[in-house]
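Q: Can I see a sequence and its folded structure?
A: Here is a first one.
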Amino acid sequence: MKRVEYVSITDEEALDAFHQCCLLEGIIPALETAHALAEAMKRATNLRDDHLMVVCLSGRGDKDMQTVMNHMAAADNTQEKLV
């Protein structure tokens, strides 16, 4: 019986999942949870419409806001340099 599977998610994928959760659900997930959400979103694309997926959201995202804002500022700065 397979009990666990370890996967990797990039920081970009986790931050995208973080933003989507904030926008779509009004929930600020912890960054650790955002990694799980990113993988769940990948897997959801391969599920039947009648399949139910449950993802446990743990932790608080408010403690991660500075990290997210720093990443957004760095991404904005990178975009400005590319233009």
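Q: Show me another, different protein.
A: A second, unrelated one:
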Amino acid sequence: MDVFKYTFFLWIIGCSLGLSLRAQTTAEQASQAYRGQDYKKSIELYEQLASQGLAQDKESAEIYYNLGNAYFRNNQTGKAILNYERALLLDPGDRDIRHNLRFARTRTEDRIIPAGSFFLSNWIAGIQNLFSSNTWAVIGIVCFLVFLVCLGAF
């Protein structure tokens, strides 16, 4: 029975390594296509990586950022903005994503100027975007533990 467990364990590890290596080679191919200015192929490969990430619940801000760059170079500004915004949702602290999103928005033809919002909502959104959701979760847990220590000391 132990041999079966070890064999099954090794089989699972082998399968997962094969999937990650295939995703890595797809990312390398997409990057090479982008550097070679073959933006359509790069878009196809990055879209494939994004769909694989969605299927495995492993979305990547880097994939969406690169996909946005490929769409922008292919003169598809709307799709570029969409992917920059997706990347920004996953990594709100990344300055490159913010810069490219701002730049892509200046290239739109209709240039819709959003209505101003209340200053407190801007302030709260600024604080929320300082860290990713995972970082905020860690901060919340640490604050809760500090609260428990203070409560115990009281």
